[in-house]
Amino acid sequence: MTRNILAVLLTLIAVALFVPVNTANAADPIELDGVITAVGERGIALHTRRGDVRILVTERTRISLNGEPARLGSLQPRDRAHVVAEVVRTRQGPRLVAHSIRAVRRG
């Protein structure tokens, strides 16, 4: 239980780092580069220079792997990724939602 609370708090802090200060720019896309650390049913965890963030994926998210169209389930931890996302405010708090994920697997 304590781990879950800590994970939620750390996620909110990480997302807050990417929330635009000027609300007029709130819809501007955010670009993130990093290494995928986890892949779930609804998104990915990405390790960036600024910390770890969780990014939600929707049916509209464009995903590619090594330049080819891919599905979320095709991505793996240790893949490098460039993500274009936006902050969406929900009742649970701000969430990063991916517009696109361009992943590269070195192999």
Descriptive overview:
- The chain is of the alpha+beta class.
- The protein is 16% helix and 48% strand.
- The protein is built from one helix and seven strands, in the order αβββββββ.
- It has one helix at 2-18, and strands at 30-39, 43-48, 51-56, 62-65, 68-69, 80-90, 93-104.
- Strands 1-2-3-7-6 form a five-stranded mixed β-barrel.
- Strand 2 and strand 3 form a beta hairpin.
- The longest helix is centred in the first third of the chain and has 17 residues, at 2-18.
- It is globular and about 40 Å long.
- The N and C termini lie far apart (38 Å).
Summary tags:
107 residues, alpha+beta, OB fold (Dihydrolipoamide Acetyltransferase, E2P), five-stranded mixed barrel, 1 helix, 16% helix, 48% strand, globular
Specify the structural class: alpha+beta
Measure the end-to-end span: 38 Å
Fourth-level CATH superfamily: Copper binding periplasmic protein CusF
CATH architecture: Beta Barrel
The biggest sheet amounts to: 5 strands, mixed, barrel
In CATH, the topology is named: OB fold (Dihydrolipoamide Acetyltransferase, E2P)
Gross geometry: globular
Total DSSP E strands = 7
The SSE order reads: HEEEEEEE
